[in-house]
# Entry
Amino acid sequence: MVAVGIDLGTTNSVVALARDGRIEVVPDDEGRKLHPSVVAFKPNGERAIGMPARLRRVIDPRNTIFSAKRLIGQAFESKAIQSLIAQLPYEVRAAKDGEPAVLARGKTVPVAEISTMILAHLRARAEAYAGEPVTEAVITVPANFTDGQREATRRAGEAAGLRVLRVLNEPTAAALAYGIGKQVHQRVVVFDMGGGTFDVTLLAVRDDFFEVLATGGDPFLGGDDMDKLIADRMARRFLEQHRIDLNTDPRATAILRIAGEQIKGKLSSEDEVTGSLSEIAHGEGGVPLALDFRVTRAELEQMIEPLVDRAIVKCEDVLAAAGVMAQHVDEVILVGGATRVPLVRRRVAEHFQREPRTDINPMEVVAEGAALQAMILTAPAEQSKPAPILIDVTPHALGLATAGGYTDVLIDRNQAIPAERTRVFATARDQQTEVVIRICQGGERTFANNVALGELRLDGIAAAPRGQVRIEVTFLVDADGILQVSAKDVATGHANRVSLRVLGGERA
Amino acid sequence: MSDFWHDVLALAAALDRRSYYQLLDVTPDASVEAVRAAYAQRVAAYHPDRHARETDPDRKRALVSLQARFNEAYRVLSDPHQRAEYDRVLASGQLRWLGRALVHVEDPASPQARRYFQFGKDAERDGDRAGALMNYQFALQLEPSSEAVRAAIEAIGGDKKAEPVKPRPPTAPPVADQRAAPRHEIAHPVRLHVSTWKKLVTMYARDISAGGMFLKTTHPPPLGTHLQLAIIAPDGRVLELRAEVAHVIAADRADMGALPGIGIRFLELDEAQRTLIEDLLAAAAQAAVLAHGK
# Structure
């Protein structure tokens, strides 16, 4: 039996296993270590996952599901999801529980199931490679993932037949991969820009003790946004030349996005890329039209500069939250495909006044760290050498609604986890036997400005005049960053039935 | 059971009786570096990940509680500002820095809005619909988000929009006119024995510094009555305060939701009273320090 670390990415996933104290990244049949996070539903009812699925994005864009990670664990109705759906070539609708589901080949599939399919695929790859069963995993998520997104990811892992040892933050995993066994005493910044999300995390590493000091990021900032800028620019040129809007055609849109991704990649090593996308559209009389392009690195950098600016501002915020100056950072680690873009590296180096570390492949470092954590968590209790310990923090404040529409924050942002906080409530009405407490994510004073997570309903409270009954509500954020709520009547010690209805990411 | 698990379960059960200093086993003057080292030692021994293979749910839960409290202690003691705040509350006997301790899920939330809400209820009960509506609207103006007030207005068929009128209670004279109100010449004496220093500190923080308090009584004196309130401290010293009755909830109205009693407003403190309050708070702080053996 072997435990694995899984970097479940927006665009690509990586799985690594820890065996005999060594970490190995699991390749696919062709030796590729990146497994595209894509599930294709074929006309014959079969499914393709990984690279074969990715190839179907162009020929069958409506039934080829990618970027599930950007949808998981969120409310279909939320603004962020609605604007994202408008950009996707496949159809997304609301499932029964309010979470998004995709429509493929006439069937509705909850987004979490797409993630389960990818995880099951990775598990099967790891089993084939290791030659033994894989039943336990550490799965990574962006540090800024919400409670609902973490919970949904954990459930997806369990549905794939994995015991999820930990839902681990990606930047923390990366730091673990760099720092392990090296006895470093330093402040480390992990700059993690993947396909869809951006995270920045500041850690203090001393001996085998990893302490996250602050974390921040942007859930809608990544390499995909760069690809889209390139694609949009090409579509605009085409519209000017041929009066044809390629974005109305899902096939053309998919081709443009993939071309954008490839152009961005090439411009990391070359100054200029030229090429042609043949038969991207058909003109009058069905004449096939090609799109010829020429993009220079300078043009790309001009386009993406505002995106990089946003990331640098987040870096400043995180350092400010921890009270650390940029020049006092000892190491900067780059993680994620988008950090291969030269402008990103240059701006990060300028901001922290040092060259960032890239000696572990930025695409694989998160999975390696996750596998290390899996090894630590499955190690026998009586170990000769003490294993590293991670102290992570909460990415968002958690609170509840008080009368008057205000928020009472119980758990602050950047608080070390596990974290536990108790509040005592007094009943508001006479003979009240039920209390409903609304729970939110975010530290805004006005409750409506935060993101509602759900509501806590307590019943079976002893009937008494108002204010006489005291109810103790406890928030516990566990090591996965997942919130657990419990409540009890102070006088009787009776623990009330608690149900937390999770809404996942909708505005209060 | 091994000594280790015995200690873990015992410590988890005693968390609420330990100060942050005691939890991390550092002295109150320990440097941030010493606090950090002590914390790292605790983490190395007790962190749940160190015992990830443990299956007993009670033991697992105890480790999580322990680690959560070590995190909390470290967070507060390693930040000079939070540590100063904590030292202040610790001196008054509070072992944990919790911010506010009690949250009232009350609607309306603000005392002013609640007052007018109550006046409205009173008027409604007396059949005075116009008076009720006016008071509800005052309350709504003070707290536009109040569901209870909106519901009350709707129930008597009023318009929910708050009208731009200046709040003025019809049943109690406005503050500025208080002097003109009929006044009882002889101050009503009230004696309050405060048995512990902690209670005294609580009373100060909650009531005296806020300018008023609630006294339970089934025989309330009329509105505007002047009170002579004698607060007797645990060491026998007496703090005399003058107050007046600002609000009355009669015993026959206990069904209206409130306890029978009176809301009193303290009159201006003089220099001698202020000095005595400071002395009493200092004594309370001294007592708390002695109680925690520091």
